[in-house]
Amino acid sequence: MNNFGSLLRELRLNRDLTIEQLADSLNAKYGSKISKSSISRWENGEADPKLEFVRLLADFFKVPGQYFLGEGESERTGERKDIVTIAAHIDDDVTEEEMKDIKKYIEFIKSQRG
Fold first, then answer.
1. Residue 16: Cβ within 10 Å count
2. Model pTM score
3. How crowded is the C-beta side of 91, counted as CA atoms within 13 Å?
4. Cα separation of 52 and 72, whole Å?
5. How far is it, in rounded angstroms, from Cα 72 to Cα 40?
6. What is the spatial distance between Cα 11 and Cα 74, in angstroms, rounded to a whole number?
7. Where are the domains of the chain?
8. Which CATH class for the 4-111 domain?
9. Where is the HTH cro/C1-type domain (predicted)?
10. First to last CA, the chain
11. Is the distance from CB of 65 to CB of 54 less than 8 angstroms?
């Protein structure tokens, strides 16, 4: 089972962010005061974040908060992991119209299941 730190690192690297860039992005978006050393300690398993920071990270990476708990990890398929990876690549600069198109495409794909 993955721990919090490795899950956070995976999401950060999927977005091609350095630890410093992640800290800067979180602080700019949420007005938080998360240091790069805190993120490094979380990723290395040296410290656990406060619940409020877990919520910010989940929102930032567009994953459910339970993702960081590793819930359902044993049953998670490669497909589910791909969904989280794809969601991590949808940047904040996606327009509302583009997001509608993405959602429509997802619904189209689901409708083709049979």
1. 9
2. 0.63
3. 7
4. 22
5. 25
6. 18
7. 4-111
8. mainly alpha
9. 8-68
10. 33
11. yes
